[in-house]
């Protein structure tokens, strides 16, 4: 089997290149051809011969996460440049997205694509069974989520312009089609080059709202406050007034934020950095305290706790959900209920989410 392409080609390499290329016509002729023996009559590039055919391909639902109008517009632009391309359809695009997800599950997103199509028994068979390497490369290089003709102009105001339309549509559908449990978690998604803040259900791990951190934007509609407090308020905008609780770590957490969210009928549990001026000195000084000891403080609708899991390790949490100093027995030790709740909805949340994903995709 002869494989073509750069030795360093990976999913991420091609996707990154596709966002930077000025013309998708750089794809080679071999990229338009599917593997021998495969029915090519139903395959395609991201080009179609008419708007009506595109209409038939896309979901006839108002909640389609890729707008039919945008797809039609883009397809018309690309038709003249890729008249020899084979048509694609919804099933093939779903298959492509499935392979992208599986590449992440197999930790292969940076692996040379040729290695996924090896014929020596070391490859992942589902890739070659789904589509040829040439077809995969072609679709990846053609994939666009915006109008390339106007990207340069829009990029002056929005660093996320290459995926803004599809990302916002996806997040909107995540928000509109889910009913949260009483407990939510806000945290940064797994680090992989893009910083994404997300609001997730602490019980089901469903992510209902996300925001990509793009740094400082130029003046325009996408310029916004990127401070932790502003990020939290935007993520919580869909649940204000619901009486739910939000768990967060000390990067977001502050006394003033808790006060603001209480006004929106939302409670908060989170860790506090020790440099916060609202923390009494007695909660910082641990010289004369024993390991596994706790110190509580109360003010209006908030409870502050300083917990020493071991000597010289001081964990400070603030909660507007808890209003007493109850402890919970954990084996031979007792921990403040606030600490146990935080561990369950923040720390264990990340671990349980990963375990759940592995179970879903176990082969």
UniProtKB/TrEMBL annotation:
Family matches, as Pfam families: DDE_Tnp_1_7
Region Disordered, annotated ranges: 22-61
Biased composition (Low complexity): 42-51
Residues annotated as domain PiggyBac transposable element-derived protein: 83-189, 190-342
Basic and acidic residues: bias regions: 32-41
InterPro entries reported for this sequence: PGBD
Protein's recorded name: PiggyBac transposable element-derived protein 4
PANTHER family xrefs: DUAL SPECIFICITY PHOSPHATASE 26, PIGGYBAC TRANSPOSABLE ELEMENT-DERIVED PROTEIN 4
């Amino acid at each position: 089997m002869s494989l073509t392409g750069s030795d360093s080609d990976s999913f991420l390499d091609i996707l990154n290149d596709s966002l930077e290329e000025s013309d998708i016509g750089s794809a080679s002729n071999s990229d338009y051809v599917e593997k021998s023996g495969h029915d090519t009559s139903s395959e395609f590039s991201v080009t179609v011969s008419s708007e009506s055919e595109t209409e038939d391909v896309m979901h006839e639902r108002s909640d389609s996460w890729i707008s039919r109008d945008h797809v039609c517009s883009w397809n018309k632009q690309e038709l003249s440049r890729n008249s020899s391309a084979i048509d694609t359809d919804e099933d093939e695009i779903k298959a492509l997205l499935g392979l992208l997800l599986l590449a992440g599950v197999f930790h292969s997103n940076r692996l040379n694509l040729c290695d996924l199509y090896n014929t020596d028994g070391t490859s992942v068979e589902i890739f070659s069974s789904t589509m040829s390497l040439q077809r995969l490369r072609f679709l990846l290089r053609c994939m666009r989520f915006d109008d390339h003709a106007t990207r340069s102009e829009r990029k002056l105001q929005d660093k996320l312009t290459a995926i803004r339309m599809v990302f916002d549509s996806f997040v909107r559908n995540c928000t509109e089609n889910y009913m949260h449990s009483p407990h939510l978690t806000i945290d940064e998604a797994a680090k992989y080059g893009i910083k994404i803040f997300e609001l997730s259900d602490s019980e089901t791990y469903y992510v209902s709202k996300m925001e990509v951190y793009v740094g400082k934007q130029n003046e325009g509609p996408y310029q916004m406050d990127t401070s932790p407090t502003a990020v939290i308020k935007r993520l919580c905008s869909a649940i204000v007034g619901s009486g739910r609780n939000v768990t967060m770590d000390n990067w977001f957490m502050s006394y003033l934020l808790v006060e603001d969210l209480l006004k929106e009928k939302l409670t908060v549990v989170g860790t506090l950095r020790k440099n916060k001026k609202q923390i009494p000195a007695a909660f910082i000084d641990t010289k004369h305290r024993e390991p596994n000891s706790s110190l509580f403080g109360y003010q209006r609708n908030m409870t502050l706790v300083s917990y020493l899991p071991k000597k010289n390790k001081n964990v400070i949490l603030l909660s507007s959900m808890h209003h007493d100093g109850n402890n919970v027995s954990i084996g031979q030790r007792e921990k403040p209920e606030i600490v146990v709740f935080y561990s369950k909805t923040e720390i264990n949340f990340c671990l349980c989410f990963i375990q759940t994903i592995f179970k879903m995709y176990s082969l």
